[in-house]
Amino acid sequence: MSKYLVIILAISALIVNPVCSISCQDAITKILPCEFYLLGIGSPSAPCCQAVAQLSQLASSKPELKSLCVCLKQAAQTFHVIADKAKQLPGLCHVTTPVPIDPNINCDL
C-alpha cells in the first residue's frame, strides 16, 4: 500500500460520518485494488472490478449513500484521481454503483 493511501486512510478515519454503517476507511480500503487505474496507470484489474462490485453493496439508505459519496469524493480529490478514469470504471467493470465514482459529483442530490 502506498504511503499516500495510508495517509488518506488515517485522515478518512477521522472524518467518518456516523450515519453510515460502513466507515469511510472501509470503503477506501475496498477500492484500493483500483488505485493504479484511477491514477492513470493501466487498465482495471479483476480485483479492482470485484472491489467496484462490492462497493455497490456497501450502502443502501439515502444517508449511507450520501456518506459514501462524500467519502469517495474527498478521497478522489486528495489522491488526484483522474475524473474520466473514475467515471469509466463501473462501465469497464460491467457493474452499476449506487454512488457515481466521480470526483466532481454533487453528493447532496
Automatic annotation (TrEMBL):
Domain of life: Eukaryota
Alphabetical GO biological process terms: lipid transport
A matching Pfam family: Tryp_alpha_amyl
GO-annotated molecular function: lipid binding
UniProt xrefs under Gene3D superfamilies: Plant lipid-transfer and hydrophobic proteins
UniProt keywords, alphabetically: Lipid-binding, Transport
Function: Plant non-specific lipid-transfer proteins transfer phospholipids as well as galactolipids across membranes. May play a role in wax or cutin deposition in the cell walls of expanding epidermal cells and certain secretory tissues.
Similarity annotation: Belongs to the plant LTP family.
PANTHER family, per the entry: NON-SPECIFIC LIPID-TRANSFER PROTEIN 2-RELATED (PTHR33076)
Name of this chain's protein: Non-specific lipid-transfer protein
